[in-house]
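can u do me a favor
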């Protein structure tokens, strides 16, 4: 079996990154991720204080970020706290950048 071409390898990396791109494809979700960068975790109410949207709308965006694999949720008492879980996404983004810089 032959080695994948530059294009094929790039497509493979983009396919792996696709859920992250979809999760980050909205400015509100980008704001949520930026907010959580320097926080250990926040609940929906705490996040909604910083995002000019209703709590249900913020919850919807949090759900999308969780489905994309960018957030982890942990229940503490009656509240759910969200924290960034981006190590895998960062690793894949680094692979893509390194691949483009070195291979193409």
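np, heres the sequence
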């Amino acid at each position: 079996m032959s080695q994948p071409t530059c294009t094929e390898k790039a497509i493979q990396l983009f396919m792996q990154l696709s859920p992250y791109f979809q999760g980050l494809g909205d400015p509100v979700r980008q704001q949520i991720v930026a907010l959580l960068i320097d926080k250990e975790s926040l609940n929906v109410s705490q996040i909604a204080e910083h995002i000019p949207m209703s709590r249900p709308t913020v919850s919807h965006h949090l759900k999308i970020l969780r489905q994309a694999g960018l957030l982890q949720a942990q229940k503490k008492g009656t509240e759910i706290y969200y924290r960034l879980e981006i190590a895998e996404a960062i690793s894949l983004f680094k692979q893509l950048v390194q691949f483009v810089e070195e291979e193409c």
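The first helix runs from residue 6 to 23. hope that helps!!
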